Description:
The structure is a homodimer. Chain A is of the alpha/beta class. Chain A has helices at 16-27, 29-36, 67-72, 89-98, 108-125, 142-148, 163-175, 179-188, 197-200, 203-217, 236-244, 311-331, 368-378, 406-417, and strands at residues 7-12, 40-46, 63-64, 78-81, 102-105, 129-130, 154-160, 227-228, 247-259, 265-277, 289-296, 300-307, 353-362, 383-389, 395-401, 404-405, 422-431. Chain A folds into three domains: 7-137 and 311-331, NAD(P)-binding Rossmann-like Domain (Rossmann fold, 3-Layer(aba) Sandwich), CATH 3.40.50.720; 143-307, Dihydrodipicolinate Reductase, domain 2, CATH 3.30.360.10; 350-431, Alpha-Beta Plaits, CATH 3.30.70. Helices cover 36% and strands 26% of the residues of chain A. In chain A, strands 7, 8, 9, 10, 11, 12, 13, 14, 15, 16 and 17 form an eleven-stranded mixed beta sheet that branches. A six-stranded parallel beta sheet of chain A has the order 3-2-1-4-5-6, sandwiched between helices. Chain A is elongated. The model of chain A has no long low-confidence stretch (mean pLDDT 94).
Amino acid sequence: MSPRLPVRLALLGCGTVGADVVRLLQSHADDLAARVGAPLELVGIAVRNPAAERDPAVEPALLTTDAAGLVARADVDIVVELIGGIEPARGLLLSALGRGVSVVTANKALLAQDGVTLYEAAAGSGADLYFEASVAGAIPLLRPMRESLAGDRIDRVLGIVNGTCNYVLSRMDATGADFDEALKEATALGYAEADPTADIDGGDAAAKAAILASIAFHTRVTGADVYREGIAEVTAAEISGAQAMGCVVKLLAIAERDVDGLGREGVSVRVHPAMIPHSHPLAGVRDAFNAVFIEAAAAGPLMFYGRGAGGAPTASAVLGDLVVAARNRVSGARGPGESAYADLPLRPIGQSVTSYYVSLDVADKAGVLATVAQVFAAHDVSIRTVRQEGHSDDATLVLVTHTATNAALAATVEDLRGLDTVRAVASVLRVEGG
Amino acid sequence: MSPRLPVRLALLGCGTVGADVVRLLQSHADDLAARVGAPLELVGIAVRNPAAERDPAVEPALLTTDAAGLVARADVDIVVELIGGIEPARGLLLSALGRGVSVVTANKALLAQDGVTLYEAAAGSGADLYFEASVAGAIPLLRPMRESLAGDRIDRVLGIVNGTCNYVLSRMDATGADFDEALKEATALGYAEADPTADIDGGDAAAKAAILASIAFHTRVTGADVYREGIAEVTAAEISGAQAMGCVVKLLAIAERDVDGLGREGVSVRVHPAMIPHSHPLAGVRDAFNAVFIEAAAAGPLMFYGRGAGGAPTASAVLGDLVVAARNRVSGARGPGESAYADLPLRPIGQSVTSYYVSLDVADKAGVLATVAQVFAAHDVSIRTVRQEGHSDDATLVLVTHTATNAALAATVEDLRGLDTVRAVASVLRVEGG
């Protein structure tokens, strides 16, 4: 292909992000051509309703309802997929990749469910597959992980990857509001969807955790593999308990590489609320912002921060991928393939290891602490700090453990519930980033 | 080149970073080969003293004192330059690039002084030139700017890029120490060199600002073009003045694109201490850490955080570049070239625009504020807040301005010095990140 010939793009979907992609293609046309080495030409846009009004305006002849027909055109070099969801996106992208047509997609759900099938289709035909916009919106994250850290070893990824949850938890922290109040405010301000279930229950973050873990550890991880707890159970008391400890509560997507007692590597991937100390760089990530903290063996700690959602930020990530894919077309090159070559085993949640904050409602009697401490000791869970608040019938015992497995902590909590002297296990929250 | 043939590397310099590069090449050999598609083979290492003891151990036959001879070998695919400084590095790299040999370098001084000559040599022969390690050590920053944001427009870069200065200012903020005390502590702990001049006076940060501005704005900017003020004049009183305003003092490297009154784009690049509000993501970057905050038109605010120096972090950045350059060799491709195509004019410091914190020692007499306010107004510098501290002969007037040009502020300060009622202009500090 001569550098003078345009690189031809098919756009699938033209909602908020798609419109911003079209806008950037129009307004930055000269600059994009300079960076690619050839102009970018939009040859078709598949939409549900061609009659809908569009901003920016689009030549009507470009619009079609026949996505499959558009993808099958022989003159398409790159497919940009912004439909979302599993089908028809999956079939369309496999058809493009199978014929050597490169793909740029923002499709988190598809990558999280079946990324490896897409990786393999791209590898098979030598096409490029880029999906920076699928995790943490505008933040350049997957490219640095795949390329800049290609000579390093990623040991751990801690991400704040859901803006709705981060907004709700930030408000609870700032105002003392409880979960329902804070969610109501988030909804009123447009930070939460009318039905925020997939955000609040950790499902969205779990899909992103799966994609991050796949890239970090070259291992097949799907959204369904990710253990998750949402934020609906986080109480105002836990938020203030965290503050008393110099911590803040965040919903974290965590992917860790570890080595078991027999020297075998494995991967733990999970999503849950956790306390992190104020000194941790993630603690200052407020409101609807996203950030991903990476620990690499040689580079040390790294953090990437920015907007995780929105039309223009997501379009920026799509355009970045598009420029690279188009430049590869022009030069006849291809980007780094992704694969699950390392194929590390996934640890069940019971084997995941962290510290815990445990708050107990107890009667303030002599010997309560000794009894409680014995239960922790019986499960080999070592206590780092204990603090008692209140007196007589209203006492609260706040314990923070050293690292322990989730299984050991769960067994400890079950036994604590059986004690006469413990009225209730008021909170169990993980402590991360220490 | 068949994918099975090794990619052959020449290493120039084998100090702290070089040793860590050799270590990673040895310990990650299989993983690197998987990512590159071919093994990496070190064919020679140019050093000053081949007899020196080395960790990790290196085959003695690889060592040579003849760097030029090593670079000229016909079997070298990629030169990794870790000598630093201008010559002989410049001549060696131009010789390699001129013959189509790709270059990975950590050489901040050379890139800042003469980056465009290197860009042009690489473009002329089709070789790759990567230099991620030259700014902000381990932090993947230049690749995201060049590739992930290739479809966006960078408007502003604010960086904490000198670990020594950030450590000193962090200690002053945390302990109330003055500059000399904090520097002494930094030296004792190894965060400052025996001769810290190039760090303290902003020279190191200016070189990095030049590289960042070149990449962000596709414009030739050298270290000598960068206006700079160091941190030696920052007082404990300014640190506590910043705290009283909810701010922290940081040494910032700033590169901004702006549009003048006639609609002409230009670039302002400068390094100086500045107050930034605690709510700004850069405010939490403490001790020897680095971070770069980028404002892009579509992506919005982004921040990249990590270690800015040290053998292993820098080696991680070098290896990331090396993997990409080697993969390009294997596939016959090349990376994105860099150029100064936009060629925007550089604004003199007088035209740079920001807010200012001005602290005046005044006599607490009726009419002082009116007189002072008149001077600001005469130069069209608008006042945002005024606070008076103390009484009678010891009063201090603290003013924060709206944005104004550096020239207008300088003229204002000169006139303030001429007032009878103003005993001294105690502080003038820029306020950024608002």
